[in-house]
Amino acid sequence: MERTFSIIKPDAVQRNLIGAILQRLENNGLTVVAAKMLHLSAQQAEEFYAEHKGRDFYEPLVNYMISGPIIVQVLQGENAIAKNREVMGVTDPSKAAQGTIRADYALSVRENSVHGSDSPESAAREIAFFFTDNEICGRNA
Ligand code: RTP
Ligand code: MG
Question: Residue 111 is part of which domain span?
Answer without folding.
Answer: 2-131
